[in-house]
Amino acid sequence: MQGLLYQEDSFGIFLLVTLVLGGAGAWLSGRAIARTWRPWWMVLPAMLLLGFAVRFIHFALFEGTLMSPWYYAVDTSVVTAVALAAFRSTRRRQMIRQYGFLIIPAERDA
Question: What is the pTM of this model?
Fold first, then answer.
């Protein structure tokens, strides 16, 4: 797995920086984009920037390669998946709150 997903010596560093720090930022970004009723594709430009920020943290703190297209793509795809999940979750709650009268009662609990 090392070399494919992460460059550093430890999988824990990948988990900490990409999944915990980057994932938290991605979740908040996806939620913010959904809460302002923007379309889902607005998540993509934001995650391109966040992917670079995650790559920079790997470079600055753990001596990773800054300009590595492969690891940038891995980091960006992880944070994009988290942000899209947050967007979908937030948008679902918004739709239920805003248009809950259109939902059949049995479907409301699902």
Answer: 0.85
